[in-house]
Amino acid sequence: MKEVYDFLKKAQTYYLATVEGDQPRVRPFGTVDIFEDKLYIQTGKSKKVSAQIQANPKVELCAFCDGVWLRVAGTLKRDDRREPKAHMLDSYPELKAMYSPDDDNTEVLYFENAEAVFASFTAPPRVIKF
Question: What are the pLDDT digits (tens) for 89-102?
């Protein structure tokens, strides 16, 4: 999981895919954190992506860096505790102007039953499950 985290941090931007009804939705994200040995992302509960995840928590993300792409598929679980929210925001202090661990909007979610696949045109795919 640490390798997945490191790759996403280096890539800086990844694209998160959700579903809204029968329509796929993809948007750029940049937040990633490890807290209590789980891989977390962050968004706002007021955003459509949050409602999409709550309706169908199965997601996939994709990132590309240095000729390698990473896909992570899994289920996202909301964690409403203050501690993981504060940890995430301490990792991204620029977000503190918009989010707080004590507001009703900040949402952190962790991957459960995740499968990460590193792939390129020069090596066979490599799978990490967490």
Answer: 999 999 999 999 99
At residue 92, the 3 state secondary structure works out as: coil
Closest CA to 31 of 18, 41, 21: 41
DSSP E strands in 66-105: the ranges are 68-79
**Cα–Cα distance measured from residue 50 to residue 44, given in angstroms and rounded to the nearest whole number:** 7
Provide the token pair at 8. Answer: 């996403």
Q: Are 54 and 46 within 8 A, CB to CB?
A: no
- Is the model's pTM score more than 0.90? yes
Helix ranges (H only) for 15-121 are 48-55, 82-91
pLDDT digits (tens, 9 = 90+) for 56-79: 999 999 999 999 999 999 999 999
Enumerate domains of the chain plus CATH numbers: 2-121 (2.30.110.10)
Residues in the chain: 130
